[in-house]
Amino acid sequence: MNNLKIIAVIPARYASTRFPAKLVQDLGGKPVVVQTYLATVATQLFDEVLVATDHQIIFDLLKVHNVNVVMSSDSHESGSDRIAEVIENINCDIVVNVQGDEPFVNKENLESLIGIFKKDIEQKIDLASLMFETTDLETINNPNNVKVVVDQNLKALYFSRAAIPFPRDGKSFVPYYQHIGVYTYRKNALLDFTQWEMKGLEATEKLEQLRYLEYGRTIQMVLTNHTGVGIDTKEDLDKARLLWK
């Protein structure tokens, strides 16, 4: 299985609720998304790296920087839909979704995700994603932080914005895990996703990964200590600029 063709796709939406146009902000002399692209290429883990954008401004800017970029529809409801459109006619086996607002790409995390599929000889795993353990009650109870419950083999049982599991007697006998939305997909699972109707769990929690579970697909979670440095606000950008120096 080591002859898998593995590509990375960096979704790059122009609009952002908390920080519009964040991906084109300067970081170390280049736009954030360009630095993310270069860092992803530098890992040397991928047969191809490309950026998928829904906006002409980002497309034109990336062309100036000689980035491998393609246009995608601006009507997609999820990241899976956007990436599926882009990779449908690309010859590949595994697709890694790299967040465009995380220029400090962690090679170790990406290697761990890719390694799941290299070892999956029977092709039983459809997706792999990241999680980290947290004991912070504010983090656990914050609905903006997605929690995941796993079985003994770290396969996802459920994702929720709620604090799961609920400690009925005031004590949890398992760790709490927060989900990091970096996905690695088997190509056929990603294309299947676009053909499935949204079901009740996804509609309730507004979490696209629940669609895979509702349709019986397997998500392998990977435990990590590297939580990444995302740029969601102007303050995050200021921190990233200091860290870049």
From TrEMBL:
The keyword Cell membrane does not apply. Its EC number is 2.7.7.38. It is found in: Cytoplasm. GO terms for molecular function: 3-deoxy-manno-octulosonate cytidylyltransferase activity. Its main location: cytoplasm. Pathway: Nucleotide-sugar biosynthesis; CMP-3-deoxy-D-manno-octulosonate biosynthesis; CMP-3-deoxy-D-manno-octulosonate from 3-deoxy-D-manno-octulosonate and CTP: step 1/1. One of its GO terms (cellular component) is cytosol. It comes from the Bacteria. It catalyses: 3-deoxy-alpha-D-manno-oct-2-ulosonate + CTP = CMP-3-deoxy-beta-D-manno-octulosonate + diphosphate. Keywords: Cytoplasm, Lipopolysaccharide biosynthesis, Nucleotidyltransferase, Transferase. GO terms for biological process: CMP-keto-3-deoxy-D-manno-octulosonic acid biosynthetic process; lipopolysaccharide biosynthetic process. Activates KDO (a required 8-carbon sugar) for incorporation into bacterial lipopolysaccharide in Gram-negative bacteria. Belongs to the KdsB family. NCBIfam families: kdsB, PRK05450.1-5, PRK13368.1. This is 3-deoxy-manno-octulosonate cytidylyltransferase.
